[in-house]
C-alpha cells in the first residue's frame, strides 16, 4: 500500500517548520525508549511525529531528522487491518492499548508488514500527553507464513518488551560465547538449552552429516527436565533413509510440523522415527558450515501439538547461523593447527637430520685432520730440507704433497666450521684485534702461490687502521678465504689487491682482483652455502662453494656487512665493513650462534 503512488516523498506536515520546536522531547524523558530492542515512535495526539528510537530506524530506515514534525499517516501510510477492526477504519480510530497489523512504507519505499501497539503516555516532568506506537517488523521471506503463529493476543506491552529483551539477551550470549571458545561442544549444548527454554521446546538438538555426506548423527542435544535423551539412538543414520526430510534440508527449506501424526505419506519414514521418540511437533532449520549445508538444528515438543511462531523461526535461524559460523571457524582453525603441527614435526625431523649430518661431518673432519697434520708437518720438514738436500725432482714432489695437504686442510677447516654453525656450536670470542696485522698475515700466507702463478699481490692502506673488537681465530680465517678465493679465479699475470681504510666507527676492506668476474644474475646467490656458478667453474677452478658463505657468516657475527661488485670478464671486488665495537661495548664477550633457520 502506498499513500500517493510509488513515488511518494515524505513532505513536511501541515505544521510550519517554525512550530517544530514544539515537538522537542526531553532527553531524560525518552531515555527509556532509546535502549528498547522494539521500535518506538512518539507522536502527539494529532499524530505529528516528535521522536523515534534506534530500533525504529532499523525497521523503517527513517531517522528522527527525516520525519520530525511530519504527519504519521503521510509518512508511513499506516492504515490498519485487523480481524477485530473494520477494514475501513483509520489509525485515528485505534483505541489505546490496541494491537493491530498494517503495512508501512520504509524510507526505501518498500512495504513492510508491521505489528503495532498504540499506548497513551505522559513523559515524566511534562504535562504533554503523547502516543507511543510500539512497532515490530513481522515481514518474513519464506513461504506459507500462515503456518506460523503470531501472538496478537498480548494485552500488555510489558510482556512484549520482556520477550524482546529476553531474545536479545539470549542471542547476545550465544554470539559472544561462540567467538573462539575453548570448548565449543559444551557451549553449543548450552546455547541449545537457552534457545529451547526461550522458544518453549522440550528438546533442542544439532545434527551434522559426515565427511562423505552419507550418514548423519545427533552431535549435540539439550533436553528439558523429565524428557528422555535420544542422542545415543540417533548416530550414523543413513541420509537416504529420510529422503523427504533431507531433501528439504538440502534445498534450504524450513521444516515446520505442527502435528507429527498428520505428516504426509511421503514422509512415512520420518514420521515413524519421530513417533518412536514421542515427538508431537517440531521446527527444523538447515545449518550451513562454510557456505555448505552441513546438517540441521531443531526444536521439538513431546507434550503438545501446535504451531511455532515466526519469532521462534527467527531465533532458531539466528542460532543456526551463529553455530554454523563457529563450527566453520573451528574446522578451519583445526586444519591450520594440524598443518602447523605437521610442519613443526617435519621441521624438527629435518633439523635433527641436519644436526646428525653435520655432527658426522665434524667427527669425520676431526678424524681426517689428525693424519693430515702429520703429513703437513713432515712434508714441511722435507721442503725445508731439514733431513738433507733434495734434487729438483724430489723438491717438486714434496712441494706437491705439501700444497695439496694445505688445500685439503682448508677444506677440512671449512667443513668443521659449517658443522659447528649448523650444530649450534659456533662461538665467537671478541678481543682487541689489529686488522692490519691480519691483512699482512693473509698476504704472507698466499705469497708463495701468488709468486708461482705470476700474480701481483698488493696492499694499500690509507692512514692508520683502528683496533677493532673481533674474534682472533675467525677474522684471520675470513681474510685467508677471501684472498684465496681472489687468487683462485685470477689468471696468470693478473693482480689481487687489498685496500683498507678507516670509516665511520669501523674499517672498510676491499679485496680486488682482475679475475673472471661474476655474472650479474648470480650475485644474489653468491653467498649461499655450496653454491657455485656452474659445473665448468668447479672443474677448472676447484672449490666447494663454502668460502663466501663462511665469510658472510663471520662478518654477520661481527655485526658487519659484506657485498660484492663485479664485472664479468674484468674482475670482482669483495667489500667488508667491520665495526670497531660489534657489540656496542668494549669488553670481552663470548657469542654463540644456534642453527640458522634458513639453512635447515
UniProtKB/TrEMBL annotation:
Pfam families: GAF (PF01590), HATPase_c (PF02518), HisKA (PF00512), PAS_8 (PF13188)
Protein name: histidine kinase
InterPro entries given in the database record: GAF (IPR003018), GAF-like_dom_sf (IPR029016), HATPase_C_sf (IPR036890), HATPase_dom (IPR003594), His_kinase_dom (IPR005467), HisK_dim/P_dom (IPR003661), HisK_dim/P_sf (IPR036097), PAS (IPR000014)
GO molecular function term, any single one: histidine phosphotransfer kinase activity
Residues of the PAS domain: 31-69
Gene Ontology, cellular component aspect: plasma membrane
PROSITE patterns the UniProt entry points to: HIS_KIN, PAS
EC number of the protein: 2.7.13.3
Amino acid at each position: 500500500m502506498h499513500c500517493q503512488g510509488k513515488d511518494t516523498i515524505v513532505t513536511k506536515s501541515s505544521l510550519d517548520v517554525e512550530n517544530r520546536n514544539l515537538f522537542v522531547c526531553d532527553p531524560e524523558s525518552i531515555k527509556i525508549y532509546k535502549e528498547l530492542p522494539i521500535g518506538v515512535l512518539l507522536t502527539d495526539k494529532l499524530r505529528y511525529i516528535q521522536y523515534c528510537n534506534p530500533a525504529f530506524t532499523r525497521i523503517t530506515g527513517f531517522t528522527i531528522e527525516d520525519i520530525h514534525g511530519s504527519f504519521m499517516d503521510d509518512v508511513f501510510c499506516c492504515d490498519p487491518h485487523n480481524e477485530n477492526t473494520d477494514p475501513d477504519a483509520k489509525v485515528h480510530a485505534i483505541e489505546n492499548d490496541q494491537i493491530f497489523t498494517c503495512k508501512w512504507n520504509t524510507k526505501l519505499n518498500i512495504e513492510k508488514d508491521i505489528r503495532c501497539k498504540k499506548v497513551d503516555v505522559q513523559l515524566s516532568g511534562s504535562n504533554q500527553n503523547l502516543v507511543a506506537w510500539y512497532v515490530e517488523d513481522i515481514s518474513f521471506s519464506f513461504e506459507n507464513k500462515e503456518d506460523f503463529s503470531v501472538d496478537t493476543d498480548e494485552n500488555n506491552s510489558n510482556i512484549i518488551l520482556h520477550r524482546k529483551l529476553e531474545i536479545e539477551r539470549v542471542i547476545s550470549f550465544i554470539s559472544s560465547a561462540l567467538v573462539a571458545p575453548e570448548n565449543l561442544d559444551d557451549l553449543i549444548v548450552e546455547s541449545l538449552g537457552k534457545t529451547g527454554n526461550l522458544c518453549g521446546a522440550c528438546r533442542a538438538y544439532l545434527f551434522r552429516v559426515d565427511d562423505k555426506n552419507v550418514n548423519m548423527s545427533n552431535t549435540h542435544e539439550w533436553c528439558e527436565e523429565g524428557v528422555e535423551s535420544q542422542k545415543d539412538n540417533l548416530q550414523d543414520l543413513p541420509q537416504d533413509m529420510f529422503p523427504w526430510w533431507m531433501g528439504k534440508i538440502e534445498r534450504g527449506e524450513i521444516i515446520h510440523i505442527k502435528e507429527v501424526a498428520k505428516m504426509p505419506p511421503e514422509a512415512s519414514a520420518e514420521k515413524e522415527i519421530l513417533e518412536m521418540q514421542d515427538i508431537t511437533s517440531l521446527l527444523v532449520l538447515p545449518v550451513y558450515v562454510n557456505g555448505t549445508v552441513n546438517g540441521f538444528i531443531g526444536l521439538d515438543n513431546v507434550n503438545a501439538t501446535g504451531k511455532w511462531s515466526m519469532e521462534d523461526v527467527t531465533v532458531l535461524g539466528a542460532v543456526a547461523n551463529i553455530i554454523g559460523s563457529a563450527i566453520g571457524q573451528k574446522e578451519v582453525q583445526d586444519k591450520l593447527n594440524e598443518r602447523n603441527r605437521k610442519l613443526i614435526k617435519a621441521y624438527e625431523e629435518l633439523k635433527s637430520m641436519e644436526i646428525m649430518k653435520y655432527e658426522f661431518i665434524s667427527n669425520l673432519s676431526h678424524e681426517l685432520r689428525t693424519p693430515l697434520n702429520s703429513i703437513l708437518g713432515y712434508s714441511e720438514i722435507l721442503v725445508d730440507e731439514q733431513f738433507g738436500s733434495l734434487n729438483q725432482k724430489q723438491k717438486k714432489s714434496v712441494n706437491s704433497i705439501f700444497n695439496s695437504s694445505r688445500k685439503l686442510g682448508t677444506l677440512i677447516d671449512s667443513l668443521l666450521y659449517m658443522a659447528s654453525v649448523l650444530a649450534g656450536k659456533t662461538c665467537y670470542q671478541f678481543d682487541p684485534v689489529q686488522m692490519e696485522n691480519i691483512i699482512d698475515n693473509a698476504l704472507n700466507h698466499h705469497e708463495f702461490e701468488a709468486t708461482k702463478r705470476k700474480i701481483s699481490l698488493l696492499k694499500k692502506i690509507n692512514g692508520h687502521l683502528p683496533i677493532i673488537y673481533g674474534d682472533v681465530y675467525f677474522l684471520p680465517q675470513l681474510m685467508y678465504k677471501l684472498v684465496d678465493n681472489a687468487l683462485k679465479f685470477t689468471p696468470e699475470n693478473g693482480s689481487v689487491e687489498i685496500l683498507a681504510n678507516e670509516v665511520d666507527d669501523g674499517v672498510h676492506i676491499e679485496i680486488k682482483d682482475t679475475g673472471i668476474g661474476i655474472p650479474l644474475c648470480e650475485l644474489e646467490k653468491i653467498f649461499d652455502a655450496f653454491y657455485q656458478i656452474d659445473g665448468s667453474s668447479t672443474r677448472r677452478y676447484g672449490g666447494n662453494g663454502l668460502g663466501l658463505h663462511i665469510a658472510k657468516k663471520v662478518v654477520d657475527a661481527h655485526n658487519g656487512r659484506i657485498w660484492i661488485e663485479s664485472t664479468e670478464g674484468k674482475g670482482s671486488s669483495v667489500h667488508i665493513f667491520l665495526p670497531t665495537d660489534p657489540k656496542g661495548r668494549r669488553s670481552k664477550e663470548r657469542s654463540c650462534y644456534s642453527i640458522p633457520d634458513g639453512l635447515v
